[in-house]
Write a structure and sequence with these properties.
mainly alpha
């Protein structure tokens, strides 16, 4: 989804996908997709391919559109967190480049982002201490814990 500025560009791209691209995208966007059927068949007929592309289009567009609007029950903080999460889930090409670009923001905003980052590190360190992590976020939790330990050792 990273290169699409609107839903029409997204729809157009989906219709140029190969079968293998479809299988990969269906695995990401759908837990109830006909993946087993697709993987066990050598070829899809045109009607099946169009049907799968239609299903995939609607699911991707729903996710794309959902990211743009605040849910009724969602607080402003929850909405902001979900937007940031979606950025890191396939939109950002270079975390280092984004971090560098963020330093060019207004100085007040840089300060606010830093404070948020420190709270994030503090929470991950706490999760590490309590054993609330697994292999997917162990590195972040452990490094956050080490940062916290360093600050405490320096009385910061």
């Amino acid at each position: 989804m990273r290169k699409f500025e609107n839903l029409e560009q997204l729809r157009a791209k989906i219709y140029t996908l190969t079968n293998n691209d479809l299988i990969d995208m269906l695995a990401e966007f759908s837990s109830d997709s006909p993946l087993t059927y697709i993987e066990n068949s050598k070829e899809l007929d045109n009607c099946q391919l169009v049907s799968i592309k239609d299903m995939l289009t609607e699911r991707i567009i729903a996710r794309f559109a959902d990211a743009e609007s605040k849910r009724q029950y969602e607080t402003d903080d929850e909405f902001a967190a979900r937007k940031i999460e979606l950025l890191f889930n396939g939109v950002i090409d270079s975390k280092k480049n984004v971090a560098e670009l963020l330093t060019r923001s207004h100085r007040y905003l840089v300060n606010e982002m830093f404070i948020c980052a420190m709270y994030f590190i503090k929470k991950l360190a706490s999760d590490y201490e309590q054993g609330i992590y697994d292999g997917r976020n162990e590195y972040a939790c452990k490094k956050s814990y080490e940062i916290k330990q360093f600050f405490e050792s320096q009385n910061i």
